[in-house]
Structures are given as C-alpha cells and as structure tokens.
User: Fold this.
Amino acid sequence: MSDIARTPEPPYYAVIFSSHRTEGDNGYGEMADRMLELAARQPGFLGVESVREGLGITVSYWDSLESISEWKRNTEHREAQRLGRKKWYSNFRVRVAKIEREYGI
Assistant:
C-alpha cells in the first residue's frame, strides 16, 4: 500500500499498529488483505496507510473512538488478533491517537 489516505478535516482518530513479524508468511498475506477489505466496510473507517521494512507500521483512521471499539470487537478481526499473537508477530504495539491538526501538499 503506497497511497496517503485522504482524511476529512480533523478531529478524527488514528490507530497506529507497529510490529515485528515472525519468519514466513503462514497465511499472513491473505489475512492482511481480508482485514483491509473488512475494515474498509466498517462504519467510521476513513482510510489506512501501511509500510513494512523490518518494522511494520499500519495506521488506520477512524471517525470516532466508538468506531475503533466496534472494529476491535469484530469477530473476524478478533480471530486475526488471536492468530497474530500466536504465529505472525514477535512483538507489536497498538496506539490510539486523536488527530487535531493536519497539513500537507
């Protein structure tokens, strides 16, 4: 994914997922594609940006804390979280931030 997400005027929220992967794919690619497809259909989803070069960082943007909570409770997403802890990530952190200002060209 290489596009910069088009987001509305602040305020909105960002979920920042930083991770180190384990060796091998082990079904990760397919699940990552499914999670992106599923998240994009969730109420309140605004966009996503993701990069991986050793350290992976995915930032998803949401219109509210309630939308983030609903996404966290999604059944398929919960299964992906379980598998991530079990076989895909050696380390990760999730951070939630309120975006109050943005600018760019």
Summary: Residues 75-88 form the longest helix (14 residues). The chain has three helices and four strands. The radius of gyration is 14 Å.
